[in-house]
Design goal:
two-stranded antiparallel ribbon, de novo design (two linked rop proteins), alpha+beta, Heat Shock Protein 90
Length: 512
């Protein structure tokens, strides 16, 4: 079936565009659910905090009342009186935040038990103590007040346990939903990009085949096969061009027939025929050459579409954009880091002489904005020229210096120092040991090996940016030089990364 060039390119893209729109809708649903769950978790935490405050109020009431009974000093009734007011305020606040009937019922039990304790135990004991210690001791010895408070604390503990369970359930459901959204989003994006690539390759192959047929047929027509009819292609514009070839061939053929009438006409016709043949060949060449440009344009614009596509939302969804930007950026960064890790581990890297002093200065210039923003200082001592791969060593210095600035202590300005010293292990191994030292937050010894693994992070996503791939890239780059990396660190005082670049670096890294 013949179709226009625009249909050939755009129609196959409809499915991946719809798929990506579905992914955008899934992300919006996931964000809405995450916001709702976050509100539930926050409300639950507020109720837990209030339950804890009530526990403290009960303890203060009991301590104040017992203190007065034991000592008879009126000063002990001051915390008792304050705790009474705090208990009332906290229970009222909890009542306003309780959303289910069971919570209200249990809260009523707590208030009732407290009232019972005060009426039947606390206040009688206080009145008895004002008369004599013996009278108060007789009342305390019955153990009634203690039992009442134990019952009250039991109810509070049950309420805390149920609230904690509801909070955990909400968090678990939210994590599961986010995991599903993440999986659907990643799958949809990969599938959409795959379909776009497939559509682009299919359109390119169709156009290329059509152009090839047209070019070959035009060359045969130019060679004298004027009765040749070019096969129809799947592209309407190319079929129209083929029709032009046919009309040109028919014109040439008519001229040849007219040449037979007279010798002079034959000579003129032959001249016209030669001229027409040259024009036909030139036209075929130009057509064959120029039709490659649309093919390259198709590939370039399709690739640009795949790279620059993102979901288009209406104005009513603008308020969700802020929630999606962060996840989208992480995700982008994760993919870039994965590509960097893949490039670092590719086969067949060439090694040569690398001026690490110049390379470190270049990395510092690249990080100048982050260094200035952090108020950090980076001191680079004279560094040697070694045998290595510039791209790999660039990753090493970039990751180590960037981490030193990023994981700075909030208590002091960040200071980073880079230097190197000669290495000789006494067994024929020689080279240079590099040190990258900072005065940042430091690392616990139990994590020294873990941080070099892919996707291993010691902090939550909201604390520090990054995907947990940088140090894995660094270790891989150094190992490809035949070296090794390790660290020493004191928590809250700083970290020093050490790595060895041996003199006998490989000529080419054969197997990453």
């Amino acid at each position: 079936m013949t179709q226009s060039l625009a249909d050939l390119i755009l129609r196959p893209l409809l499915l991946p565009l719809l798929l990506l729109a579905g992914v955008a809708g899934t992300v919006i649903v996931g964000v809405n659910r995450n916001v709702s769950t976050a509100q539930q978790v926050t409300a639950s935490q507020e109720r837990l905090n209030l339950l804890t405050d009530i526990q403290k109020d009960v303890a203060s009431l009991e301590n104040g009342q017992r203190g007065y009974v034991i000592t008879g000093q009126e000063s002990f009734l001051q915390p008792y009186t304050q705790a009474t007011a705090d208990f009332q305020a906290h229970t009222e606040a909890l009542r306003q935040r309780s959303t289910i009937a069971l919570q209200q019922e249990n809260l009523n039990r707590v208030v009732a038990l407290m009232r019972l304790w005060k009426i039947t135990s606390a206040q009688p004991e206080i009145r008895a103590r004002r008369i004599s210690l013996t009278n108060a001791a007789d009342l305390v010895s019955t153990g009634q007040g203690k039992r009442q408070l134990e019952d009250l604390r039991t109810v509070l503990t049950e309420m805390q346990d149920r609230e904690a369970e509801r909070q955990k359930t909400a968090i678990d459901n939210n994590n599961a939903a986010l995991q599903n959204v993440r999986l659907i989003t990643l799958t949809g994006l990969l599938l959409g990009m795959g379909l776009m690539l497939y559509a682009a390759l299919r359109a390119a192959r169709t156009v290329q085949e059509s152009v090839t047929f047209l070019s070959e047929g035009a060359q045969e027509i130019a060679a004298g096969r004027y009765d040749l009819r070019l096969p129809e292609t799947r592209v309407r514009e190319l079929d129209m061009l083929g029709g032009q070839f046919h009309r040109m061939a028919e014109a040439v053929q008519r001229r040849e027939q007219e040449v037979e009438e007279t010798t002079r006409a034959l000579q003129n016709t032959n001249a016209d025929l030669e001229r027409s043949n040259r024009e036909l060949e030139r036209f075929a060449y130009v057509a064959s050459h120029d039709l490659q440009e649309p093919l390259r344009t198709i590939g370039s614009y399709t690739e640009l579409l795949g790279k620059r596509y993102k979901g288009q939302l209406d104005e009513r969804a603008d308020k969700y954009i802020d929630f999606t930007i962060s996840a989208t950026q992480r995700l982008k960064n994760l993919i870039q880091d994965l590509l960097a890790f893949s490039r670092v581990n590719r086969l067949g890297r060439a090694f040569g002489r690398v001026d690490t002093a110049e390379l470190a200065q270049q990395v510092r210039a690249e990080l100048d904005a982050k260094i200035g923003q952090a108020g950090a200082s980076v001191e680079i001592s004279p560094l040697p020229t070694v045998r290595g791969n510039t791209e790999l060593l660039h990753h090493v210095f970039l990751n180590l210096i960037a981490n030193a600035v990023k994981f700075r202590s909030p208590e002091r300005p960040a200071k980073v120092r880079v230097w190197a010293e000669r290495f000789n292990n006494g067994q024929g191994g020689q080279g240079w040991i590099y040190h990258v030292q900072d005065n940042g937050i430091g690392i616990e010894p139990m994590f020294f090996d873990k941080i070099f693994e892919v996707f291993q992070r010691l902090h939550g996503l909201g604390e520090y940016e990054g995907s947990g791939i940088g140090l894995a890239v660094t270790r891989s780059a150094i190992e490809q030089h035949g070296g090794k990396i390790w660290l020493s660190s004191v928590p809250n005082h700083g970290t020093t990364f050490h790595f060895i670049l041996p003199d006998e670096a490989p000529q080419e890294y054969p197997n990453a």
